[in-house]
Automatic annotation (TrEMBL):
Source species, domain of life: Bacteria
Name of protein: Polysaccharide pyruvyl transferase domain-containing protein
Organism: Ornithinimicrobium tianjinense
Entries under InterPro entries matching the protein: Polysacch_pyruvyl_Trfase
Residues covered by the Polysaccharide pyruvyl transferase domain: 96-226
């Protein structure tokens, strides 16, 4: 483990002192966010926090930018579900809000007491029985609204899912594509956003690698790896893309590096800018409904 990764792990993950340090960082960052003045409100939210992955870390980041202080809560106490394929994990009696969450396995579930602010895509909306007027889109699409795009400097950004980080194909592609870079998903969202936004094209096995590229209008391609399949298969990708009105399928199959690159050159694309903008507006409007959310309380001092 590199020194940088040791420091990152020491600050954000591990035993109780590290969890407390992570909590302090979230609270202090949220309180220092201009959107939280004149007073901040706390949201008891659930997100996956077992190891650092930029996609899972989007919920607290985006809540803070929207004017709320995210408090990590166990599912039984949570009143807010955000980014991720986490709806199957929610108890049937869940009575909080859902903002951009999705299903993992594509099977119908019942959360009759939930408030549906937004869901990731039309497939999830239909399977959970959310109202037809529920906003669609993954909150990761807001990346470009919170982090300014980096200076274009990379020809190809490779964003592996954490399960695919050690695949040899990434090195093979880098040797063939000058100026390409492998972007580690085990970083804070803002760092990953800047790195992805500096790329001309993105190849990814990570859903949020694809979503981030779409937010910045960067042509992207999702790579499937049959040898190491993701839980839930392609459902979360299908669900997300159901919100985009795409005309083409943006999928490549892992194989020889040159074959993969050929698929990227032929098929990498991005959704229409007006579609992304509309989804962003819908997500922001949806999260603003938390203003009178009954589980929130004012934060008076730290």
């Amino acid at each position: 483990m590199t020194l940088q990764r040791r420091v990152r792990h020491a600050l954000y993950y591990g035993n109780r002192p590290r969890r407390l340090a992570r909590r302090f960082h979230r609270y202090s960052s949220a309180v220092l966010t201009p959107a939280n003045y004149p007073r901040a409100r706390v949201v008891n939210a659930y997100w996956f926090d077992q190891f650092l992955n930029f996609g899972d870390a989007l919920t607290p980041m985006l809540l803070a930018r929207a004017g709320y202080v995210p408090r990590l809560a166990p599912l039984k106490d949570a009143q807010f579900l955000g980014v991720g394929s986490i709806l199957e994990m929610a108890p049937t009696g869940y009575s909080g809000s859902v903002w951009g969450s999705g299903l993992l396995y594509g099977e119908a579930i019942a959360l009759p007491h939930a408030t549906w602010l937004a869901v990731r895509g039309a497939l999830t909306r239909d399977l959970v029985g959310a109202p037809s007027v529920t906003a669609l889109g993954d909150p990761g699409l807001l990346a470009s609204t919170v982090v300014v795009a980096g200076r274009p400097s990379r020809s190809l950004g490779i964003v592996p899912h954490h399960a695919h980080r050690s695949l040899p194909i990434w090195g093979e592609i880098q040797r063939r594509v000058p100026g390409s870079v492998v972007i580690d998903p085990a970083q804070r969202p803002s760092r990953v956003f800047r790195q992805i936004s500096a790329c001309s094209t993105v190849l990814t096995t990570s859903l949020h690698g694809l979503i981030t590229a779409d937010s910045y209008g960067i042509p992207a391609m999702w790579l499937t790896v049959d040898e190491i399949p993701l839980r839930g298969g392609s459902f979360k990708f299908d669900d997300y893309e159901s919100s985009l009105n795409l005309r083409t399928v943006r999928r490549a199959k892992a194989g020889a590096a040159e074959d993969v690159l050929g698929q990227v050159r032929a098929g990498a694309s991005s959704p229409a800018a007006e579609v992304v903008s509309s989804l962003q507006s819908g997500l922001l409007k949806a999260v603003s409904a938390l203003t009178d959310f009954r589980s929130m309380s004012p934060v008076r001092s730290y």
